[in-house]
Each structure stands twice: as structure tokens, then as C-alpha cells.
Specification:
The structure is a single chain. The chain contains six helices and seven strands. It is an alpha/beta fold and 209 residues long. α5 packs antiparallel against α6. β6 and β7 form a beta hairpin. The chain has a single domain, classed as Glutaredoxin (3-Layer(aba) Sandwich), CATH 3.40.30. The protein is globular and about 45 Å long. The protein is 44% helix and 17% strand. Strands 2-1-5-4-3-6-7 form a seven-stranded mixed sheet.
């Protein structure tokens, strides 16, 4: 049983790592030789216009659907316990979830990992926002967001109607989050269109290594 469990864990980790490696390989080829794109080219992620309504178990084992937070703009963070940049994001996401300047935003974590590993991690590292947990169903949730070939972490931002403003791939930092949250808030206030918000996010989100 222990061997089977370890094999299953490594299978899940290997699947995600392989997907990340494929993406990194093609991206590096494009960066190193932009004048002659390598073939075959990796297909860009197809991000849906609206947030998919996935259902996963929470830390208590209860099924929770993302539609539970309909009417609220959402920050949906995909992570895993074995992912170092995912772990580094947690204090910032905790602060964001508690921040009185952003009371309307629902922060939701989706752990693509083994349930027992996530529950053990949560006993050691407090997370102040809702955490949903999935193994294969977690991978399926990532695919529903259009993220089939990219690694963790990634974070989807939606407006209050569920439209996806952006998906930030890689570790999210507070200055980046604030640019995106401001754009989403402006959409919800009717000050700008979603098209303008997406353009603003692309232009103004700082690049942080």
C-alpha cells in the first residue's frame, strides 16, 4: 500500500513537472531564436472568457463549487505543497484575504496535490482563505481554465460576473496583484471595459524575477 501510494504521488508530481518542462523547452527555443520559431510550436493556452464552475472538496471534505462565490470578484490560486514558489505566495495571499482595502474579493486556493499532504501542510502553515483540494480532479480544474501545459503556481482573476481578466503564471507578488485588482475593480465599477482592463494589466503589471 505504501509503495502504491508513493508511486501515485510521484506520478502526479511527474505529470505536472513534465507539462512544465515541455512549456519551458518551447519557450526557451522561442526566446533564443525569435527570428526562426522552432517547429512544432507550442499552442498558446486557450483561456475561457468566463471562469469554469469546477467543484472540489474543501479541507473538511465537503464539495464546494466556485459558483458559491458568484457575484464577487475572485482570486483563484492554483498551487501544490511541493512547489516552492507556491509556498512563497501564501503569506501574500493571506494578507490579501484579510486586507480591508479589498473586502469584495474572494481568495480561493486550489491545491493540485494529494489530500493527506495538503491537510498535513495546513496544520503547519496557516492559510486564511478557502482551500479546495484535488488530485486528478485538480488537474482537470486547471485544464478547464485553459492551463494544460504550464506549471504551478498560476492565479486567475475574475470580475464579479465571472469573466476572467487575466491568468498570472508563476509566483504572484503584491505589486503585481495590486495592478490586476485595481483593473478588475475598475471593470466592476463600470469605469473601464474588460478589454481595456486586460490591456492595462498587460502594460502595467511589473515583471518581477
Amino acid at each position: 500500500m505504501l509503495t502504491t501510494k508513493r508511486q501515485g504521488r510521484w506520478a502526479l508530481v511527474t505529470l505536472i513537472a513534465l507539462a512544465a518542462g515541455v512549456a519551458a523547452f518551447f519557450i526557451s527555443r522561442l526566446v533564443l531564436a525569435p527570428e526562426k520559431p522552432a517547429l512544432p510550436q507550442i499552442q498558446p493556452a486557450v483561456i475561457p472568457e468566463y471562469r469554469p464552475d469546477v467543484t472540489l472538496a474543501d479541507r473538511a471534505g465537503n464539495p464546494r463549487a466556485l459558483s458559491e462565490w458568484d457575484g464577487k470578484p475572485q482570486v483563484i490560486n492554483f498551487w501544490a505543497t511541493w512547489c516552492a514558489p507556491c509556498r512563497r505566495e501564501i503569506p501574500m495571499l493571506n494578507a490579501l484575504a484579510r486586507d480591508p482595502d479589498y473586502p469584495e474579493f474572494a481568495v480561493i486556493g486550489i491545491a493540485i496535490d494529494f489530500r493527506e499532504d495538503v491537510l498535513r501542510y495546513l496544520t503547519e502553515t496557516p492559510i486564511d482563505y478557502t482551500v479546495l483540494i484535488g488530485e486528478q480532479d485538480g488537474l482537470d480544474a486547471a485544464r478547464a481554465f485553459g492551463m494544460e501545459s504550464l506549471g504551478l503556481p498560476f492565479t486567475a482573476f475574475t470580475d464579479k460576473t465571472g469573466r476572467i481578466a487575466t491568468i498570472h503564471v508563476g509566483e504572484l507578488h503584491r505589486p503585481q496583484a495590486e495592478v490586476i485588482l485595481a483593473a478588475v475593480r475598475a471593470v466592476d465599477a463600470g469605469q473601464i471595459t474588460m478589454k481595456t482592463a486586460r490591456e492595462r494589466i498587460r502594460a502595467e503589471t511589473p515583471k518581477i524575477d
